[in-house]
Amino acid sequence: MTALTAIPSSSLSPLQSKGDERSGALRLIRFSAVAVPIAAATMPIGVYLPAIFARDFGLSLGMIGFIFLIGRLWDAISDPLIGSLSDRTRSRFGRRKPWMAAGAVLFTLSSIFLFFPVATVTPHYLGGVLFVFYLGWTAIQIPFLAWSGEISGHYHERTRIATYQTVVGSAALFVTLLLPALADQLRPGDGHLQMSLMGALVLATVIPGVFLSLTAFPEVPAPAGPAETLSIKHTLRAVFANTLLLRVLASDFAVTLAQSIRAALIVFYVSFYMGRPDWAAALFLFQFVFGIFAGPIWLRIGLKLGKHRTAVLGELVQVAVNLSLLLVTPDTFGLLLALTLVQGLAQGSGNLMLRAIVADIADKHRLETGEERTGLYYSVFSLAGKGASAIAIGVALPLVAWLGFDPRGSNSPQALLGLAYVFALGPALGHAFSALLLARFPLDEAAHSEIRRQLDDQPLALAPAE
Question: Is the dihedral of CA 398, 403, 407, 408 positive or negative?
Answer without folding.
Answer: positive
